[in-house]
Specification:
four-stranded mixed beta sheet, 10 strands, 2,3-Dihydroxybiphenyl 1,2-Dioxygenase, domain 1, alpha+beta, Recoverin, domain 1
Amino acid sequence: MGAGASVNAETLLTDEACEALYTIRPMLREITNKEELLARVHEDLVLAKDARDFMPKGFHLEKSSKGHGVVEGVISKVGHICRVVKDSEVAKKFYTNIIGAKLLNRPKFPTNGYWLWLGNTQLHLIESELAMAPDHPQGGTRVNHISFDCYDFDAVEARIKEAGIKYNKVFVPLGNGSGINQIFVQDPDSHWIELCDCHRFNDFIFGPYDEKRGEELRKAYLEGVEPKGTFMATLLFILMSHSDEGAAHSPLKDMFDTFAGADGDSNTISEDDLQLILGRLMGKQELQESDKAQIKAMLKRLDSSADGVVTFDEFHKYLTEELLNSDVEALMDSMFVALDVDGSGTITAKEFTRDFKNLVPSMKEEDIGAIFASIDQNRDSVITRDEFTVLFQKFREAVLLPPVKEN
């Protein structure tokens, strides 16, 4: 529990503060006991000496009796964030319907626009022909973005799926089997938005600094390297290892059987199957808790029936949706990063051979070398991002082929 939870609830949660909380999160109205309410919202209030710091009704902060404001006596808070948009009506619908922002009053300025409430600050939308999209996200999650905390991540993801909006999902391991989920999505003007349950990280961010914990998080925090990338990269290697077996074999079935047969049961893929196969690609004899947490998250995405195992139909459905509806560039990036072990921006012959031998120990090195040479078109002994794009397209086409029906 964060530091704020140790504060006396009666002092921190005044009637006005409680009412403001209920305005932001109506589902909390059922909690009338202030101690219980504080336990539910302590992450919002960590290090807050006054609940008004985080509440709409108390957002105009005055100097305290000590003569200083929140930030060195000059800055009291973030007043608003502004986005210049091409169409304020379209932008408003996105931020209210998808993000859940509330409409505020706005003066009748000569320019079209809206003011919205984001829970702890305002978002101002100003319509202009000068609206410009930010840089293309070659850096994966390392892009300019606004981040919104989610208290029901699955509900947020379901809302985005229902709207048919493409997005990239990332799991960030924080050690001890825990982690945070992130969704990166673009608004109608291509500005990047992050939606995450980042409040799970608040105990470390706002608490007393723990050097040992900080080092553990440094090792575990792999933002941008998600289980989907490792999973898809594994499927790519399986495809390449079976590429000479003829058209009678279904690439999709080969991929499924490799996972499903890992523990001897060829009918479904279990969490143990995923750990065995993905562990091989990662070159790990024993998986860390953060690795297991990523794999558990991957299983949850595949297992649409939530029965703990993945059938071939679920496997087929997941891959088809990912390859048809996901951000293709982001998906390729996640696969490429999973294989580019040293982070050099290329996949070397050594990395490629190591990954192949880990995953398919029976493969001869000369056969692996021949596959590498067929991808390395300019013969510079590395696979570049452009060369990987060609390989990815072949993978995509193979996966989207109708499965071969068994007799």
